Amino acid sequence: MAGIAVKRKLESEDDGELSLKVKKTKVMSDNVGEEGEPVCQKILSGFKTSSVLIDYTREKKIFIHGKLADQDAVVILEKTPFRENDLAEVFSTSTLKLDMKNDIYSTYKLRAPPHLNEIKTTVVCPATEKHLNKYKRQESFLVEETKTDYESITLPFIEKQNTFSLQWVYNILQKKAEVERIVYEDSDPDTGFMLLPDFKWDQKQVDDLYLIAIVHPMNIKSLRDLTAEHIPLLKNILQKGQAAILERYSLPANKLRVYLHYQPSYYHLHIHFTNLGYDAPGCGVDRAHLLSDVIQNLQSDPDYYKKRTLYFPLRVDDKLFSTFKEAGRV
Amino acid sequence: MAGIAVKRKLESEDDGELSLKVKKTKVMSDNVGEEGEPVCQKILSGFKTSSVLIDYTREKKIFIHGKLADQDAVVILEKTPFRENDLAEVFSTSTLKLDMKNDIYSTYKLRAPPHLNEIKTTVVCPATEKHLNKYKRQESFLVEETKTDYESITLPFIEKQNTFSLQWVYNILQKKAEVERIVYEDSDPDTGFMLLPDFKWDQKQVDDLYLIAIVHPMNIKSLRDLTAEHIPLLKNILQKGQAAILERYSLPANKLRVYLHYQPSYYHLHIHFTNLGYDAPGCGVDRAHLLSDVIQNLQSDPDYYKKRTLYFPLRVDDKLFSTFKEAGRV
Q1: A-chain residues within 8 Å CB-CB of B286?
Q2: Rounded-to-5 percentages of helix, strand, coil across chain B
Q3: Which one, of A31, A29, A35, A34, lies nearest residue A3 by Cα?
Q4: Within an 8 Å CB–CB cutoff, is residue B204 touching chain A?
Q5: With CB atoms 3.0 to 4.6 Å apart as the test, which of A78, A79, A125, B173 could cross-link to A60 if both were Cys?
């Protein structure tokens, strides 16, 4: 099969899902019909399910482990959202089976022509043990981290991390990568930051707007490092980040949810800006801290986050979880 | 059409969605085939779309306003979750159209036989203005409420509310209603509470476990009324609520998210207990406050919540939002 070299990177998302970052390629297939259109084939007719790795019933998305031509494979099926342009045809061509009728309310099972009700399918084949572990539902536990726990467990854990793991952050700050994605920059070394769209956001609509502000100061690992001396930085991010989003996306400050994560997914301070109307993964109170609240807390107590007991979820396959467990704190 | 009287109640959920509580009836239809099975009909072939009221792309659910036989109607379409028992047939009978192939990853559009890919459909016809308003996407705005705002705007608003609006809460506390639903009770008048499943939880699995603890003390409207004198109450709820859930549902404390809402949906203090693994509606940081954090804050500052500026989302059709707007605070 002809190929164009593409950059492919597997990244672990905050919610544990694996996101495939690829530059889109041309459709490359041997299964091409007369006019170059791909034909429909029963490619998965030989797929044998071994187990369901995880089933997101709310999102109608399922991850399945199985065998395809004797190889381990993961198949991801996801129902597609409705397309407004298709609705007329859906209504005129679908058949309905009545479930219940009660006064003005009636419920049905609707059967639409397949081309109007496609299922997004991803196949990973051959799939490795790493794929299976990444996709499998991982239990999370709520962990309690006192000031002492931070100093004796978490901080040594962070310090042991490979310094190269933040190289991609530094590449952005030094404009060695992703320069075209920068929405806004304040280059002040003490109070400045860069604002970029998060990879989870396809930028096609503002409904699920999601940007990240990466701070310029190099020595702030997380919420735990913040003291009153950082208030000017935090206020600057809040104010200028909101202004930049208003200007670029016409979304005002009172339609934004602005917060930090603890634990963060990487230990260089960054702030999340999401559309208030969007239940962004990771905006739950067990992990998120409103930036306005953080500023207010530091104003009333400069060492608030040094002294505080903090609570956060950790997945059982997270190395930090193992570390807390070994320390007898879980 | 033959009918059995059923109790039907439209209830407005916390997230603004309308939930239809009906006792299931027999399938009652004139459109019945030979063996009593409902036949499939193109019932919506005459439906003309006027507008999309709201489109939940994450959940693959859409609410559509239109006309059916010259009457206003609302049609709700929702893709169905995958059923594990159907997967083998889905794989063996579906055709796939290749979108992209890159090394071990390939993506497709899958077309399944309609009976394996049904769409849950609800028709409300005739629909009233009230239905359209309930279903329509309501914008929310993040509101900033200072100590002064609370005293001058919110508190007068709460005090004007009809006292009967809390009668259902008192009925529970006085065991005049829902007695069979009580999971646990501590009847102490100062530190006690009742623990019941939330109506959003069908109790069929613990994945989406959701219980509410309603406090016995009668004079605590919300987070704003909490002071250090309430710490024994709050600690009692946290400890005994977690113990009761462990005993009844085998879910330990470190798998729970325990929080209050501000603003709450009713002004008698109540605490939410949800499964940590479940992204419960309303667990977002813009509205939820971890009970452990509340206790910690009151321990360090007895008047923390009296002095604090709090942030919370309000829908534009919320009367409190109008009140803030009239006061020039939005």
Answers
A1: 257, 276, 283, 290
A2: 30, 30, 40
A3: A29
A4: no
A5: A79
